[in-house]
Amino acid sequence: MTVSSEARRSRLLLRKANGAVFMVFCFLATLVGLIMLAVLLIDVLRDGLGRLSYDFINSFPSARPEKAGIKAALWGSIWMVGMTAVFAVPIGIGAAIYLEEYAPRHWITRVLQTNIANLAGVPSIVYGLLGLAIFVRQMELGRSLLAGSLTMALLVLPIIIIASQEAIRAVPPSYREGAFALGATRWQVVWRQVLPTALPGILTGIILALSRALGEAAPMIMIGALLFVPFTPSGPTDRFTVLPIQIFNWISRPQEAFHHAAAAGIIVLLAVLLGMNSIAIILRHRFQRRLRE
Amino acid sequence: MTTERAPLLVDARQFVKPEAGRPEPDAGSGRNIVEVRGLNVWYGTFQALNDISFAVPENRITAIIGPSGCGKSTILRCINRMNDLLTGFRAEGEVIFEGEDVYASGLDPVDVRRRIGMVFQKPNPFPKSIYENAAFGPRINGFRGSLDEIVERSLRRAALWDEVGEKLRESALKLSGGQQQRLCIARALATEPDIILMDEPCSALDPVATLKIEDLMRDLARNYTIVIVTHNMQQAARVSDYTMMMMMDENRSGVLVEYGPTREVFTNPKDKRTEDYITGRFG
Nearest CA of chain B to the CA of A187: how many Å? Predict the structure, then answer.
């Protein structure tokens, strides 16, 4: 009442100015990420694009940088990610279903939940140590694809569990109620209502997790993936290398030509990642449409 | 100075139909399909229902009315054991459905729910086609036979076939709110229940859709028993044969105030609280 209209107007201007400043800050924050990504891409493309060819993708590593190729690492990565998915996806979704749909809501469940969240934050090198101790040495799997993908499965499991849990939690309770009221058992409710509805979200989580597995080098170094592999793996017990390790290997060489090979390797890695993500988006889109129509 | 509170709601007595609440059921079997005896319910340490006893006559519509939070929905969800899904839920007393106590140890809640249909406050069709919604109940119960037939019959009974018969494969989510609710009724009918519980089925619908559902209910009452929870006293007066009035006691537990033929409850209530409530003087 005592505030004059003059004062009120100037205060309004100030409030609007505050909003504008904040908006500009947020815009700049977005820009930082975009610019960094662009710089990275341009740098890599400039170094590596010339080196990228069919021969590069289809050749084994060589001591002569101009002849070195990425075939072994590419196939090693594909094997490793595929096997990781086989181990981690069923276990991850299973754990998420249990925690969301079956587990009694008491303190043990809460402790479990907190621990899974913590596991997602454990440095990957620690998983490498774990894999070395358990899979490579204890279970005597050796430095094989099997040991590598089991280690990677442990690493990505928390990501899959948490993403799947969130997707399951987002399923409207009214779907469950409706199904229960028709005489569905809990299994039928989960299988016929909850999972189909949660599937797009679960898929997103899986792809995120597998992308992480594809890009990880540290745990693979720990369990001893090879640096020089002149063959593609033919089974789970074979020794192997993966893309990040091959890239790391080339970068650490003194010859300039190997650095170009590394850049080309990074392009291949990014292309695989991008491919995986687009598949996820397409799949998710299709499932969502099926739900709506 | 005493302040007389102005009526908040329209006096619902004027909506009672002359035929409502026949004290001696003529068309029905005259038997009670559900009998609740001395039902007490707790959620954790909170007592939600206090010593509730009543009987639901077959092929009649029984309305449960009363202020928010007095346990109307809780009663409904005790009949088909939906409350079992809540943690901390505990019931004492008997809920006899067709001669059997649904809380007896030998009875599986899954089987109880199949024989008792339920329609919820907000229409909740599954994100599937109209056909799949209607077929869901028979499917999960291992029905062998013509699903097409069951789907058509259920949709016809729910007065929906004429509107959706040509587009059974389309998503149920594309239907209007009223159509969705009738689809939910069809879905419940498809499992051939003996009784249908409706938990404020029209509270999310517009007046036209509401009247359609009410007509449908009167229609269904020829073959089914319906128990409806409603906040809308005019609706209770319009559709129901029997009315149960509930209130909260001093511990906020739900108690049964009055139960009888709708006509009597509305025009000649025995309890002062019922009269105040239905004439809009509730306070």
Answer: 10
